[in-house]
């Protein structure tokens, strides 16, 4: 059990980050009830809902429309995303003439039978999922020892809304059900506002109150299609959600599941006591919005080999990407989750792309193994030999040697090509300004993925 409170202004205490941490392939059922609702609140759940729809797995949603505030277009989006009518999906809208429908509860059942839930104050709205509002709640997870019967009670309470007629409940099985609800005043005509509005005094004078900003920025969800906005351009890329998205159509899902005491988004291959490797280290999930990888701002740690430093260089791997990976176990002083991959590295300049000899890397989870202390994080090794070869190439031709604050491109492994690909760029090449601008835009808009990274749209990185 864990208490989260976004008054900390940490993204780890925001409902949206928790919702986005679930790998679509690991979820068997999704249930929620929320007092207030807007379609954009669906962004962190869209990957899971799409996978549940493709397998016709249980998806039960109970939505409040207090005073008819929930917009018909928002429920239309939900219907399209969930895919009703289908056998294992149910949507209910609750509205009373007096009193409010006010719970905020989200429940996941995993493929391995474990359960997780949030019970708290955050609605499924943009301010609720993004950390714009101050919200608090409890996270329960049977995979970390929380009582199964309590989590089963949470699921049963949501399911009970569909066990027979309930006062104030209107079920929605198809788009044709929406017009009568608008006519009855249960739903509004306009979409639910996406952001909270500033409140000023009756005199019209500017307020001296401090305003809050979102801690996580998600893209809008298409009202008609019920999909998260795709990455269509470099400018749009930073707005992609911090979550894995859909399952690649050609990828066969590999069995994976969480394992205590590690966070639920760290998924393990069953029964393996060594690190996973290559395609076996991938779950089959893709990055959010069809992203091809990340643009990462180098720091002193990740750039240490370019400056002649010693030790191990690492880049921080955002939680939003971890659902794509399937870990084994590294048998060292601490038994840490680890996945190993081939790595290609190159330097792009006006001479073209210079690729150094292929090497290998690993992604490892720190701070959670029994007896381990320190802050929990996930790191990928930047090996010394290829980094020094790039340094020597750049120096020999009078080019800029990569350094801290430079952008790098990190393309993600796929089942068809389970290789990480890192690109370093001379500032005189136009690509440098393109990806550096993407990072700057993401930072200014509060849309970084983790610390110092943003999503890389397909088609930005030159062909290998």
Automatic annotation (TrEMBL):
CDD domains the record matches: PLDc_Bfil_DEXD_like
Domain of life the protein comes from: Bacteria
Ranges where the Restriction endonuclease type II NgoFVII N-terminal domain occurs: 28-143
Alphabetical list of InterPro entries matching this protein: RE_NgoFVII_N
Protein's name according to its UniProt entry: NgoFVII family restriction endonuclease
Organism: Paracoccus suum
Positions of the UniProt region annotated as Disordered: 236-256
Keyword terms, alphabetized: Endonuclease, Hydrolase, Nuclease
Any one GO molecular function term: endonuclease activity
Pfam families in UniProt: RE_NgoFVII
